[in-house]
Design brief:
The protein is mainly alpha-helical. It has helices at 18-25, 48-67, 79-90, 103-118, 148-158, 204-217, 222-225, 238-242, 248-257, 264-286, 309-317, 323-335, 340-353, 358-368, 374-385, 400-407, 412-417, 426-430, 436-442, 454-467; strands at 3-8, 29-36, 73-76, 94-98, 122-126.
Length: 473
């Protein structure tokens, strides 16, 4: 039986895997391979938290392959050299994989494809991660979208779900002489970033379990629940989708299958949020410079504050003195994840009250998030900072006290992640500096006042905006 390399990257699943499906359907015995080449990811590569997740996801994938008579072949990069060597060692006649959508990934994939074809291999590349690929839709004038709502409307109408596909229960075994380097050669996650293990189950099985849990427990209250960080109101599928442990079209199909007249609004609200992920990919593909530069060039002259390492360290450690901000950063430290509403609050505090460049926050999130997707991360930070696609205006400055009162009304989220404040009455959990004597008695080690005064920070941010960007409108 002829062999085909199936190059796995951020598509670590067996079911609904287009490259794998193509190999089987074309009569090849698949050789599932992962190439460890972190240097190819560039300056904005996901960091330690993602690496810890990936290691566990690869181990789960290998374990599942072994139950089917196969195994994961782990190779050391560069990717092209590793794949060429594997093809030569096995006599493989084809290579299949799922594409990336940012400019470096596209250029790299094209180079690998050319080199393998030059060596006589059949090469096919597939969509393994998007509901709508970035070039599938455009504005009426043929331009890429920069505003979400018309993108969502067009993409929803263009959506065609692939049919479900389940990988065979029994596979041909890879040639015995092909060993690779083994998962253990990838090394251990850096100390401090593998602590999220208790909160997640990486791998395809964990992804499907998370989807079932969401549909059974949270979908029917999603519209309101998704904004309450103390409640299990979101799907928590983002890291599973980021690593391709579940296909987005499987998520859509199962959520739509759970549709009832009573929950129709919640289903639509969830799908709308899922399409923000599509929009992020669309924007990054068409505006690759947005990873480093403001999508709105008016902000190129904006007077961001000089990077203050002590202030940034306080923000990263959850020591700003603003409880909802600090609770979010503590959740991030402990779980590698942060509730989306709180992500917006902590990002607003950094880019507006502290007036730090959004890149400072984006880089930290890439280092610490288990769902550290470059496209989503860039879109989110530029959205909050007011510099990106469909962005909130810069002068929309979240008041973290008001946000906490609205979305964590009983202070449960703050109490969970800042247990030192749990003994405070609920109103003081939002703004403990209002009673410094009580704060000192209950939590003597917690900051006695905010790192940046909320009113002063807001005023300075607005003045900076109106003196530069606002003056050019």
């Amino acid at each position: 039986m002829a062999l085909a390399l199936v190059w796995l990257r951020d598509d670590l699943r067996l079911d609904d895997q287009p490259a794998l499906r193509a190999a089987f359907r074309q009569g090849y015995a698949p050789l599932p391979a992962y190439v460890h080449a972190p240097e190819e990811a560039g300056d904005w590569a996901p960091g330690a938290a993602s690496q810890a997740w990936r290691a566990r996801s690869l181990a789960a994938l290998d374990a599942e392959l072994r139950t089917r008579g196969s195994r994961l072949i782990v190779l050391r990069g560069p990717s092209l050299d590793a794949l060429v060597a594997l093809a030569a060692a096995t006599g493989a006649e084809a290579a299949f994989w799922c594409r990336g959508y940012d400019t470096p990934a596209e250029a790299h994939d094209a180079a690998v494809a050319r080199a393998l074809r030059a060596r006589g291999l059949r090469v096919e590349v597939f969509n393994g991660s998007q509901l709508v690929e970035p070039w599938d839709i455009a504005t009426r004038h043929g331009d890429p979208y920069r505003v979400f709502t018309p993108f969502w409307s067009n993409a929803r109408d263009a959506l065609r779900l692939p049919s479900a596909w389940r990988a065979p229960a029994c596979w041909p075994a890879p040639p015995a002489h092909v060993d690779g380097i083994g998962l253990e050669a990838l090394g251990q996650p850096r100390a401090g970033w593998d602590g999220s293990a208790a909160h997640w189950t990486p791998g395809e099985g964990g992804a499907h379990a998370a989807l079932r849990r969401f549909i059974e427990r949270a979908l029917d209250g999603y519209t309101e629940g998704r904004d309450r960080p103390a409640q299990p109101g979101t799907s928590r599928l983002s890291p599973h989708l980021h690593f391709g442990e579940i296909a987005p079209w499987r998520v859509v199909a199962e959520v739509q299958a759970a549709h009832t007249p009573a929950n129709a609004g919640h289903v639509d609200a969830f799908l709308r949020q899922l399409f923000w992920r599509e929009f992020a990919c669309h924007v990054l593909h068409h505006f690759p410079h947005s990873v480093e530069r403001n999508l709105d060039p008016r902000f190129d002259a904006f007077p961001w504050a000089a990077a203050d390492e002590s202030a940034l360290a306080a923000w990263r450690a959850g020591r700003t003195g603003v409880p909802i901000v600090d609770a979010g950063m503590r959740e991030l430290q402990h779980t590698g994840w942060m509730h989306n509403r709180v992500r917006m609050i902590v990002a607003s505090y950094l880019t507006k009250h502290m007036r730090m460049h959004w890149r400072e926050g984006a880089r930290w999130f890439l280092e610490t998030l288990v769902d550290a997707d470059t496209a989503n991360n860039t879109l989110g930070w530029q959205w909050v900072a007011g510099t990106g696609a469909d962005a909130a205006p810069y002068f929309r400055i979240f008041n973290p006290v008001t946000q906490a009162c609205t979305f964590d009304p009983d202070g449960a989220y703050i109490a969970r992640w800042l247990p030192e404040l749990a003994a405070l009455p609920v109103p003081l959990r939002f703004a403990p500096w209002q009673d410094p004597v009580r704060l000192r008695h209950v939590a003597p080690d917690y900051p006695s006042r905010p790192l940046v005064d909320l009113a002063a920070g807001r005023a300075a941010a607005l003045a900076a905006f109106h003196s530069t960007v606002g003056a050019r409108r």
